[in-house]
Design brief:
globular; alpha+beta; 16 helices; about 425 residues
Length: about 425
Amino acid sequence: MADPELVRYTLDNGLRVVLAPDATAPVVGVSVHYDVGFRSEPEGRTGFAHLFEHLMFQGSESLEKLAHFRHVQSSGGTFNGSTHPDYTDYFEVLPSAALERALFLEADRMRAPKLTAENLANQIDVVKEEIRLNVLNRPYGGFPWITLPPVLYSTFPNAHNGYGGFEDLESATVEDCAAFFDTYYSPANAVLTVAGDFELDNAKKLIEDHFGDVPHRPAPRRPSFAEPLPTTELHGEVEDAHAPLPALGIGYRMPDPINDVDSYLAYLVLAGVLTDGDGSRLQQRLVHREPLVVDIGAGAGLFGPFEARDPDTFTITLIHPHEVSRERVLAALDDELEKLAETPPSEEELRKVTARWAASLHSEHDRLVSRTLALGSFELLYGDASLVYRLADRMSAVTSEAVSAAAKALRPDARAVLVVKPASEGNNEQ
């Protein structure tokens, strides 16, 4: 991907700005990324970052509840927000003539969202229903992003449930919300991104007009979430009343995503070599030749790559029939990893994975919303939005030896194994 024009600067109140003009279509994307996610939640407040994301849509200094929705939709636009391990994002995509409207909306809630007891109670109920729908009443709900971290990690920031426990959500107060906003939702702790069809000087003026007077508050000190690597195989088990078949979630630690990008990329390539397409190593062995599993996947990050700082997790998930023992599945997995550690993948195998990944990346960033969000998250996490445009080349430079070294690091004595047992499972393993 050729590097398009990027303009990066910082307002006097500390807000970092990324501008990425592109006049190919008359639309504009606006996003704001705040440097706060699941791992920033205090103990006893699981799910708070996600709950707060919901509250940010419930009115602000100049707008009543639901006005944000009406202003975007009446302009023909779309909007949303999402919470991640280390950041929370908000975005709008609108016709380019509505750029100022999007900037006003984001600046107004950055200045003062409506944090009321009524809004809080309502959104606690909304989040609880979301958890029931997506986790509690769904087969393999929360697998592995909620259920695997408590097995692999030992500290609260890394191990706790980012969706939240009902008791923690219900005990949240308006005072908690105000303190969270004052701590994390300052312009100095955020990145504003504008991408698409706009004129640079006009965008800069509009940004200064709307965000320039948002009061400065110092960005909070970012804690380290580091913890020691596992020195033995860790085990955990959960029962899933809705799961039709047993499953295994396996977690390994990865290189630092921010300060060791190329080593991290080797794990992304490894994931492709293992499970990407019918010709991949584990698909061939565990699905087609033996077969031992009915579904398999591997990936970097519990939410996907480039979503978190260190530590991050390499996951392998496998769903297997009742009559196949988990020991057989793990033995076959370890055998394939050992083969890959001893004999690097062929150049053809490597190029197939990197070409597919690059094509997917280009396709994703053709979508304005994806490009806007990627630029903002890379500026926030890496301090360099332009890295988005160099990822495909960096991925293509990953060597077979680096992939083999990554496979060698996936050792049984340095991983977590989570067993998901269907409620109906009896003594039917062999």
